Amino acid sequence: MEENHVAKAVKALIIGGSAGSLQVLFNLLPLLKSNLPFAIIIVLHRRHSADSSLSDLLSTKTMSPTREVEDKDVIRAGHIYLAPADYHLLIEKQESFSLDYSEKINFSRPSIDVTFESAAEVYGPSLVALLLSGANEDGTKGLSQVKKAGGTTIVQNPDTAQMPYMPHYAMMHTVIDHILDVPQMSHYINNLR
Amino acid sequence: MIEDEDVELLLTDLLDIYGYDFTSYSKASLKRRIVRLVSIDKFPSFAEFRYKVRTDESYLKRFVEEITVNVTEMFRDPSFYKSLRDDILPVLGTKPFIRIWHAGCSTGEEVFSMAILLKEAGLLRKSLLYATDLNPSVLEKVRKGIFPLQQMKQYSESYIESGGLKDFSEYYTANYGQAKFNKELSEKIIISTHNLVSDSSFNEFDLILCRNVLIYFDKDLQDRVLKLFDASLGTLGYLALGTKETLKFSVIQNKFKQLNREKIWKKIM
Ligand SMILES: C[S@@+](CC[C@H](N)C(=O)[O-])C[C@H]1O[C@@H](n2cnc3c(N)ncnc32)[C@H](O)[C@@H]1O
């Protein structure tokens, strides 16, 4: 494993997931410390117009303040943010969110690629991007950009994923720093600085 | 790779040469749109792209069309439309005359949805819907009132979810894969270009809808545009925004009160 303390201080962890990811989050979030010194931003594929009750549901799994993003929300360390259904989630230089209602990418809105790419530009080496279970190719292009900008790339170990295609596709097409199962993820994230 | 400085130069060109002011747009999405356009139009470098925009007025038209995001739907967020039906239209109905402004209406799906609500509330005859956008090409589509037939199934479902009781297909005539909406609806729609950045208030309205437009603006521009809406609303008028947009923390928040869970505010002073 890379030594975390030689890397630049982490400012954001972005978790992208599709089919089979919700259960991973339900298992992972309770294992994470609250007050982590960076923001956690979750981009999940979900069904159109899906209820905003998902953020309520996720917030029952963690002590950290958790909310669905509204346009121009400021990004704060220690908070967990969820991309709203049916918008792409972008990150501005001044570390706030912008929403975008443009065409779907990889049949998805929000698209994981869009958020990974936008975050890579803003955070560079201070970004960690984690891609979970799923049945499509979203996220891989974004991970390449994260890597190119000096950030850290992680995928869920496909053997432990309900839908291995998405993390596996990423491993085949870009450089992945770590391949982790849920307990390893929590250990890794809790020790990020 | 396009640098932020490149984008700034381009935006300055657009303002100096054509008077189009995109300088206060949200940078992240604007840059994404520019990168996308440079790529689909296959410019070998950003310098060549910038030259084309500077010198070719017909390309400027394409630029504006592609940089702005025109995605829209009929009866998007059915619960929002349901609240218009149940909470807003009964109040507006007490007025002798109803003026509604759709700012940033894109191709008009939202405007026709509104016209249908008014029709069903028996208010269409005394209403006028002003449909404005900065992009003249989308307004051409509003004028025609023709939308792809393949969308109608989904629109019909959203219409029913919004409380609609009719057969949705009564509102259009299907022809060659297109749905042409009834003249009775389009007659009440007044179409005009209007740039929220540079144009001023042009009437007083009872209801202004500006949904999924402010997300493309930075905070300062959002405040300027919200002031414009405030100035364009009569007393006790309503302002409706997109589901993820808010008046919270804006300059006009104290003059408005949110009605319910939907993004609809009433002007209280
Ligand atoms: C995503 S569409 C929203 C359409 C519709 N209101 C909805 O919510 O479905 C955004 C629209 O805002 C328009 N727009 C962007 N900047 C504008 C400006 N400065 N003035 C007026 N309209 C603008 C775009 O041309 C586009 O049609």
**From N to C, what is the helix and strand string of chain A?**
EHEHEEEEHEHEHEH
Strand content of chain A: 15-25%
Q: Can you tell me the CATH class of chain A? A: Alpha Beta
Number of helical stretches of at least 4 residues of chain B = 10
Estimate the global geometry of chain A from the Cα principal axes: globular
The helix/strand series of chain B, from N terminus to C terminus, equals: HHHHHEHEHEHEEHEEHEEE
Strand order of the largest sheet of chain B: 6-2-1-7-8-10-9
What spatial order of strands do you see in the largest sheet of chain A?
Answer: 3-4-2-1-7-8-9
Bound molecules: S-adenosylmethionine
Largest sheet of chain B: 7 strands, mixed
- Output mean pLDDT of chain A: 94
Q: What kind of sheet is the major sheet of chain A?
A: 7 strands, parallel
CATH class category name of the largest domain in chain B: Alpha Beta
Give me the CATH superfamily of chain A. Methylesterase CheB, C-terminal domain
Number of domains of chain A: 1
Which second-level CATH architecture of chain A applies?
A: 3-Layer(aba) Sandwich
- Known CATH architecture of the largest domain in chain B: 3-Layer(aba) Sandwich
Strand content of chain B: 15-25%
* Assembly status: heterodimer
Determine Rg of chain A (CA atoms, Å): 15 Å
Low-confidence stretches of chain A: 1-5
